Amino acid sequence: MVVSGLVLQIEGAAIERVCSELAVVPGVSGLQVVGPTGPIVCVLETETTEGSTSVVGHLREMEGVYSVMPAYIHEVTEEDDSCN
Predict the structure, then answer these.
(1) Is there a contact between 21 and 58 (Cβ–Cβ < 8 Å)?
(2) Are 20 and 84 in contact (CB under 8 A)?
(3) Which of 26, 39, 54, 78 lies in the 20 to 30 Å Cα band around 68?
(4) Which residues pair with residue 3 across a beta bridge?
(5) Residue 81 has pLDDT above 80, yes or no
């Protein structure tokens, strides 16, 4: 599994619409609007690096999104899953 923290710079007037669209994107969670005009931060979880790249590409194409910047990217392996 690939876990990414993303920061989205968005058009201020588009915050509500972009948040609504992000809420239904598979793998996106933890949406937080940092200020009255953004940015938006969120967590993206996908099964593969390719899946993560695909979703980030989709987010970049959303109307009102200026940029999508990864704050961190981590591939979780079986060795990492020591909580079980």
Answers:
(1) no
(2) no
(3) 78
(4) 45, 74
(5) no
Q: Which of 31, 27, 25 is nearest to 7 (CA)?
A: 31
pTM (two decimals): 0.87
52 CB-side CA count, 13 A: 20
Tokens of 27: 């793998």
Residue 83: per-residue pLDDT? 56
CA dihedral 37, 28, 43, 63 (to 10 degrees): -30
Q: Is the dihedral of CA 66, 54, 21, 75 positive or negative?
A: negative
DSSP states of 8-76: EEE-GGGHHHHHHHHTTSTTEEEEEE-SBTB-EEEEEEESSHHHHHHHHHHHHHSTTEEEEEEEEEEE-
Amino acid at site 68: V
pLDDT tens digits, one per residue of 21-50:
999 999 999 999 999 888 999 999 999 999
